[in-house]
Amino acid sequence: MAKYVLVSGGAGYIGSHVTVELLNAGYEVIVADNMSNCDETCYEGVKKITGRADLPLIKMDFCDLEATRKLFKEHQIDAVIHFAAFKAVGESVAEPLKYYKNNLESFVNVITAAHENGGCNILFSSSATVYGEPEKLPVTEKSPRQPATSPYGETKQISEDILSACVKAYTTDGIIKGIALRYFNPIGAHPSALIGELPRGVPNNLVPFITQTAIGKRECLSIFGNDYPTPDGTCLRDYIDVVDLAKAHVAAVSRMLDGKMEESYEVFNVGTGRPVSVLELVNSFEKVNNVKLNYRFTDRRAGDVMSVYADPSLANEKLGWKAERSIDETLESAWKWEKSLAGKE
Ligand code: UDP
Q1: How far away, in angstroms, is 205 Cα from ligand 1 center?
Q2: Which of 206, 226, 307 to mutate to test the pocket of ligand 1 (most atoms within 8 A of CB)?
Q3: Which residue minimizes the CA distance to atom 24 of ligand 1?
């Protein structure tokens, strides 16, 4: 019998890639999104890639508890992947209440409805931001979580704690089981170039800024700081391909639904284990796509950590998952996506 996965925030960047991989793996998917940070481009792309013109899209806000309850009552939901959240670090500093309210309320509502409805498996979309500036690299799941540097990061930490507490508390009726996946830096797009990242306004993240500069939408990429004590002076990150990341979700959902969890609440790093500097990424982008990028070095960006990259061995071992795409393939896919967007304009 088919298993049903609710993907909250499923019309967005990561949610749409996860939906494709879930459908490819034979799961049924219910996409739900309030469309506050995306249009239907990726949802339409998912339907094209998978040939599933019947894929449901439920437009709803998970901050609406009654609507969330109704969703759980009216559908078979074997697992939830919860993406529905705001994600701009800078905005969260300027408008903290917007972040605490939306990100925490929506997640509490999902768990509440799942619990009341007889229980559920819940996969939470967490982030490497929970580690802050790590003392030791690479970070393992046992590395201490440092104080968050933004309200956004704090909502990720608090959400992990909410999930873990509910798993601990609800063990007889309405049982909750949970997995938190801590993503490092998701980049790239589906090789079809039918889905990808669609940032609104000026991008905050590095790769959308690179592709928009290369296509001529932005004049010049600022590389924030070249005086860090790293090999080339620029920050080190662990860039994870979005399709690889999506496959980690399928592995985690299968682990939950096939009864393979060793604990009722588990945490996994989802990264490559490979540190890449900003400058290396820029150079690779230019080389693999044969484009020249206009960039300059500027001051460090407030709030940036110098280096963070994963030890992904727990996910490799327990989820049977490993990042596969090379950084070059990923940067090619990002450029193909940007060009396909330009073709649409
Ligand atoms: N970065 C940059 N210029 C930009 C955007 C980002 O130099 O326009 C750098 C940033 O300082 C960091 C890395 O790229 O070292 C990744 O930043 P991003 O915002 O993509 O992700 P973060 O690691 O902050 O979550």
Answers
A1: 5
A2: 206
A3: 304
- Whole-number pLDDT of residue 32: 98
pTM over 0.90: yes
Nearest CA to ligand 1 atom 3: 223
Q: Are 87 and 126 in contact (CB under 8 A)?
A: no
307-329 pLDDT, tens digit per residue, is: 999 999 999 999 999 999 999 99
Peptide bond into 138 cis (omega under 30): yes
Averaged confidence pLDDT in the chain: 97
Atom 16 of ligand 1: nearest residue by CA position: 206
From 125, 205, 330, give the residue whose CB has the most ligand 1 atoms within 8 Å, as the site to mutate.
205
Q: Would you state the pLDDT for residue 302? A: 85
235 lines ligand 1 (CB under 6 A): yes
Give the closest residue to 261 by CA, choosing from 250, 270, 249, 252.
Answer: 252
CA angle 131, 132, 133 (to 5 degrees): 110
**Contact predicate 49/193, CB 8 Å:** no
Close Cβ partners of 87 (under 8 Å, ≥ 6 residues apart): 37, 152
* Tokens 């060793």 belong to residue: 262
